[in-house]
Amino acid sequence: MSTQSNVERTLYGFWLSPYMSQVAHILSESGLPYRYERVSPFQGSTLTPEHLERNPLGKIPSLRDVNGVDIAESHAICRYLAKIYPEVQKFYPIDDPLFCAQVDAKNDFITFSIAGPFFNWFVVSGYFPKAWKLKVDKEAHIYNLFSVLLSKLWLSRLVNGSRMDPFLLGKEPFLPDFQLFYTLELSQMFSELFEIPEMHLFRDDPALQTFYDAMCERPSTREILAAKASELDVTKKELYGGFGAAYLDKHIDRKILDGLFGREV
Ligand SMILES: N[C@@H](CCC(=O)N[C@@H](CS)C(=O)NCC(=O)O)C(=O)O
């Protein structure tokens, strides 16, 4: 595939997204320059015709590469980058099928058992109740506790089954390390933002804390966390302000929620 054209590589999304941060991280550590364009789900911008053209699934991140192609889904983007740009292969070793299978195994485990459930966890226990001011404290708390139970179970299995030296597969980080890091990072931030202490996933685990600290020492991590911090006020305003009207009211049937809880929420 040709990578020649005049298109500027552009990453669409917002910094709160751990998925976008992973792609930004791989680009940054690989020395591939990109332009950032903010597309905020909180403003309904993921479901505009313009964004759906980039990603018909209506999610961020999406990447427009210099050859003009649009790619969506964070890990599909990272794997695409490794196939096109040799400098990305140190994070996703496509030329070493056996090692690449180990990288995939960790990555798939995190996607299915940790990051995916974490997404549901903060949506049900944090995002929707806050943005929509739902009166579901008791139910959100039960979901929260159940999520802690499962997440800790899978996280300890990941830690015990990995080298943690300090990264999952040893001294150097790979794709699953970035996925794990930005999930942990979000867990720390959301536990504060939503005042849900149990949501903090690594405070009590020395191996995960060491992993987290080692990742924080990398210049690309610092760059991304600084970008995220610089956008935080805007993100918070959108979450508590526009999100309900711009996204939830339009795309989620509130009556189903009332039915689910058996009362008006
Ligand atoms: N599996 C996707 C997850 C992306 C995702 O869920 N992004 C969220 C923001 S963090 C989003 O686009 N939400 C808007 C929506 O679902 O409408 C990936 O890895 O890229």
Automatic annotation (TrEMBL):
Q: Name one GO molecular function term.
A: transferase activity
Q: Which residues form the GST C-terminal domain?
A: 96-243
Keywords, A to Z, come to: Transferase
Q: Which residues form the GST N-terminal domain?
A: 7-89
Spell out where the chain crosses the membrane: none
Q: Which InterPro entries match?
A: Glutathione-S-Trfase_C-like, Glutathione-S-Trfase_C_sf, Glutathione_S-Trfase, Glutathione_S-Trfase_N, Thioredoxin-like_sf
Q: Kindly provide the name given to this protein in its UniProt entry.
A: Glutathione S-transferase
